[in-house]
Amino acid sequence: MTPLAWTQEAYMSVERSRHACGTLLVPAYDGDDRKIIVAAGGESHWSAATKTVEFLLVSNGDAHFSKMWETGPDLPYPLINAASTTMADQKALFVIGGSNIQDHSQDTSVVLKLQCSGQEDLQCSWKKMDHELKIPTTRGVALILPSMPMASSGYLDSRDCEEGN
Fold first, then answer.
1. Sheet containing 111-117: which strands, arranged edge to edge?
2. How confident is the model at residue 12 (pLDDT cuts 50, 70, 90)?
């Protein structure tokens, strides 16, 4: 058995830390889904907050990565320390809370949703969800749980992440 080892695949065009990250599945022209690794916001190596987003494509779910990060749609504002998660079907990425640097480093309760469409010409966009966290949160952890009754929680329910909510 071959031991597992880390290998360097691709450099981001913007060095970043304190960013949100996650994965999405988007339809491919051959009918399979392509996995996209997303890095959103964070601080650059100059300690400047950024709203830039980068994608790294994974070939049809296997371990063969593209060798370059590609530019994705900017976040609505520079954001650091946000949590992120995907729905079980991985068709949308949610970026939750964090510190909105444009608004004087205020912690935010905003939930942003990234969705992509298109097969050869990938079109991705951010949408601010109507539902927000009850308490502005930074440096949090986000998980999508199945719908279940919860007594007076400050958490999002998976129903809050569906269209129209």
1. 83-86, 92-96, 111-117, 123-128
2. confident
Q: How far apart are CA 23 and CA 39, in angstroms?
A: 9
The reply to whether 128 falls in a domain is yes
Three state DSSP letters for 48-116 = CECCCEEEEEEHHHCCCECCCCEECCCCCCCEECCEEEECCCCCEEEEECCEEHHHCCEECCCEEEEEE
Q: Which domain holds residue 52?
A: 20-161
In-domain check, residue 104: yes
* % pLDDT > 90, the chain: 30
Max CA distance (Å), the chain? 52
The residue type at 90:
Q
| Chain mean pLDDT for the chain | 79
In-domain check, residue 3: no
Report in angstroms the alpha-carbon separations of 47 from 83, 117, 153: 19, 33, 35
155 lies in some domain: yes
Query: First-to-last CA distance in the chain?
Result: 48
How many domains are contained in the chain?
Answer: 1
